[in-house]
């Protein structure tokens, strides 16, 4: 078998290029949004007019998670105007379309250390991603782009993992909220969990019902009883394999909650009986992943 030939790529500074400008970069991202490394996303709009605020370069969307990305592209080094513009467009879009989660994305050739610090400060309160873009000459007439995430969105730990901030409740509290019928479904889920590890027990809190082992949180599944259904979050990494199982199962999948890193499923009274096999498989997967 022939050894692959090594080719040294020559970097290209697009800011000074006579032909490859910002619109050219936008067009490449629009053709294949996945090159940014933000997941399986699609193009929703480009050069989107913002009321009294110019045009948003690209609006991308993750259709599986009802999540949108407001993307600004900048050639050369980051500057104040582009950071402000990126945040401003994110703010306009999230207010206009609150049914989606929104994330601001700044793509630039050179994200300087100064602005890494500034972006880091914003990222405590604003979901913001900074992506450095590099262009390379492959052959005499071919150029490629490489995108590297240098500041990722701050992923906050789920509140239920910080048990000290939660108000402890009991089963009677949930029954008093009119969820007595739904608690039977909760018990069915716990039967599956208990077979995996008999040391696990239910832990009732005022906003959810989790799991504990020896008094410590062990929440690979989280339950939120409602009057007519149980919302079950199964903490699994988002993947085509898991999504395919859910699609085939007939279960009502609400969404993938990135903050809780899990699939949210609405369980009716008959789901455990009719779709118990797939639920057991997914809960077992989450259990194995959680226990490393």
Brief description of this entry?
By secondary structure, this protein is α+β, with helices and mostly antiparallel strands.
Mind explaining what this structure looks like?
Helices cover 30% and strands 33% of the residues. The protein is of the alpha+beta class and 292 residues long. The strands form three sheets. Strands 1, 2, 3, 4, 5, 6 and 7 form a seven-stranded mixed beta sheet that branches. Strands 11-12-14-13 form a four-stranded antiparallel beta sheet. Strand 4 (67-77), helix 2 (80-96) and strand 5 form a beta-alpha-beta unit. Helix 5 packs across helix 7 (271-290). The longest helix is centred in the C-terminal third of the chain and has 20 residues, at 271-290.
Q: Judging by the overall fold, what is the CATH architecture of the largest domain?
A: 3-Layer(aba) Sandwich
Report the strand count: 14
Count of discrete structural domains: 2
Helical content stands at 25-40%
Unreliable segments (pLDDT under 50, ≥5 consecutive)? 159-165
How much β-strand is present in the residues? Answer: 25-35%
User: What would the CATH topology of the largest domain be?
Assistant: Trna Endonuclease, Chain: A, domain 1
The oligomeric state of the chains shown is single chain
End-to-end separation: 38 Å
Q: What CATH first level of the largest domain would be assigned?
A: Alpha Beta
Which key terms come to mind for this protein?
2 domains, 292 residues, seven-stranded mixed β-sheet, Aspartate Aminotransferase, domain 1, 14 strands, alpha+beta, elongated, four-stranded antiparallel β-sheet, Trna Endonuclease, Chain: A, domain 1
